[in-house]
């Protein structure tokens, strides 16, 4: 009977785990292992782009790719992980509960926005965390054109001035103009607790964010927080009121709740502590990758963030190492010392930085060209060609 490597999740971490695991098994001519991906859909949802319009297009089918490398795909949603019995209970496409045994498990179930219990957020706020919510926002924005002009109709409030909040807000002026007309009197407001525009991303990048915000007409309410949301707008902590038909929540991402079913230490975001080979500490047969892994990127105290930049490389290592454990060959230690960001700033362009201190290297259209390449080429899965896919899944590929 074949040994079973079960990967839960088909995001960036899950896909690259599957490609890398089958790659190493093929190199060693080992055909007595079945690699299976369990996920709700056979597609990679391009989550880093959900702040853009036409979110329904931001998916990449992966069925042919998985077939090309010999990966079994099961359409279903994992519910329970039984570590003692070594099986996963899931709901299949027909709604029936099924059990899938495993010899080795890789958790790659990603992260999600954990909405706070702030009054009205769950009922009235929008978000761009998952594709369904991004589509819901887009449909809502289009519906604004059917309403009579008003300050509330023409005002968008973005709660949170982090990476997602900034990209969402700076894209919004162009999206609103396309819907309400070029000459509509619009206002986009970021509500953020920081004392300075873009303060959470660092001093140097903050200057570009402030410049872009000024040019695009995006205003910031600093040292502020949203304490209530209703159908007509938001109330801030100081009692101020902003009339708005569109409130977008962007803060509070946490690792998948399935991490809680695996005995082990977790960080404040719910991510499982893993060793250098991405094996969950204290678990012989379980690995974690992508947004559910608290993994050291270097020897300086830095850890992987919840980004596709880290998830892709984490996946390459997790897949290689879970297969290596079965094969009895040496694993490859995860290391990703280079950290970069490329922040989309709408019509202003983008800002590209290098290093954990985010030193600015490219801005405006130079940055935008790089961001476009990242968003439309680099983060997409490889072609459904076995040799091409396996070459891309090598964990020893130099990270530029």
- What structural class should be given to the helix and strand makeup? alpha/beta
DSSP helix fraction: 25-40%
**Secondary structure tally: strands:** 23
Q: What characterizes the major β-sheet? A: 7 strands, mixed
Mean pLDDT: 97
**Sequence stretches where pLDDT stays below 50 over 5 or more residues:** none
Percent strand equals 25-35%
- The separation of the N and C termini measures 41 Å
Q: Predict the CATH topology of the largest domain.
A: FAD/NAD(P)-binding domain
**For this structure, what is the CATH homologous superfamily of the largest domain?**
FAD/NAD(P)-binding domain
Shape: globular
If you compute it from the alpha carbons, what radius of gyration comes out, rounded to the nearest whole angstrom? 22 Å
At the first level of CATH, the class of the largest domain is Alpha Beta
Total count of domains:
2
Task: Walk me through this protein's architecture.
With 400 residues, this protein is of the alpha/beta class. It folds into two domains: 3-113 and 253-337 and 382-392, 3-Layer(bba) Sandwich (FAD/NAD(P)-binding domain); 121-249, FAD/NAD(P)-binding domain, CATH 3.50.50.60. The chain is built from nine helices and 23 strands. The chain has helices at residues 12-27, 63-68, 121-124, 131-143, 163-180, 203-216, 308-327, 364-378, 386-392, and strands at 3-8, 33-39, 43-45, 59-61, 72-82, 87-92, 97-101, 104-107, 111-113, 155-159, 187-191, 218-221, 226-230, 233-236, 241-243, 246-249, 253-255, 272-273, 286-288, 293-294, 340-344, 350-354, 359-362. The strands form seven sheets. Strands 7-6-5-2-1-8-19 form a seven-stranded mixed beta sheet. β21 (340-344) and β22 (350-354) form a beta hairpin. α1 packs parallel to α7 (308-327).
């Amino acid at each position: 009977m074949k040994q079973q490597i079960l990967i839960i999740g088909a995001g960036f971490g899950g896909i690259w785990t599957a490609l890398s695991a089958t790659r190493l098994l093929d190199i060693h001519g080992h055909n007595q292992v079945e690699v299976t991906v369990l996920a709700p859909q056979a597609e990679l949802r391009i989550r880093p782009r959900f702040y853009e319009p036409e979110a329904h297009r931001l998916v990449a089918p992966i069925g042919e790719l998985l077939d090309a490398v010999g990966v079994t795909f099961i359409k279903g949603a994992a519910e329970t992980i039984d570590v003692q019995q070594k099986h996963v209970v899931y709901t299949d496409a027909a709604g029936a509960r099924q059990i899938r045994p495993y010899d080795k498990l890789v958790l790659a179930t990603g992260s999600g926005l954990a909405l706070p219990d702030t009054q009205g957020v769950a009922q009235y706020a929008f978000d761009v965390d998952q594709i369904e919510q991004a589509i819901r926002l887009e449909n809502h924005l289009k519906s604004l054109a059917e309403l009579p002009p008003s300050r509330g109709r023409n005002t968008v409030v973005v709660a949170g001035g982090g990476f997602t909040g900034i990209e969402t807000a700076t894209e919004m002026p162009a999206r609103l103009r396309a819907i309400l007309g070029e000459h509509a009197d619009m206002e986009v407001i970021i509500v953020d607790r920081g004392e300075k525009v873009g303060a959470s991303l660092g001093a140097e990048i903050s200057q570009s964010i402030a410049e872009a915000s000024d040019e695009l007409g995006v205003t910031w309410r600093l040292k502020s927080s949203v304490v209530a949301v209703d159908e007509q707008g938001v109330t801030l902590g100081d009692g101020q009121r902003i009339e708005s038909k569109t409130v977008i929540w962007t803060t509070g991402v946490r690792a998948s709740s399935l991490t809680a079913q695996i005995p082990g230490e977790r960080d404040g975001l719910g991510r499982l502590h893993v060793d250098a080979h991405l094996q969950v500490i204290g678990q012989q047969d379980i690995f974690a990758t992508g947004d559910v892994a608290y993994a050291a990127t270097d020897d300086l105290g830095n850890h992987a963030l919840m980004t596709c930049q880290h998830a892709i490389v984490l996946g390459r290592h997790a897949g290689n190492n879970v297969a290596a454990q079965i094969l009895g060959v040496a694993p490859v230690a995860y290391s990703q010392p280079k950290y970069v960001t490329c922040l989309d700033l709408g019509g202003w362009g983008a800002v590209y930085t290098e290093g954990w201190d985010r030193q600015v290297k490219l801005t405006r259209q130079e940055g935008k060209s790089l961001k476009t390449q990242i968003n439309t080429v680099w983060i997409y899965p490889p072609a459904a060609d076995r040799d091409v896919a396996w070459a891309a899944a090598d964990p020893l590929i130099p990270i530029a």
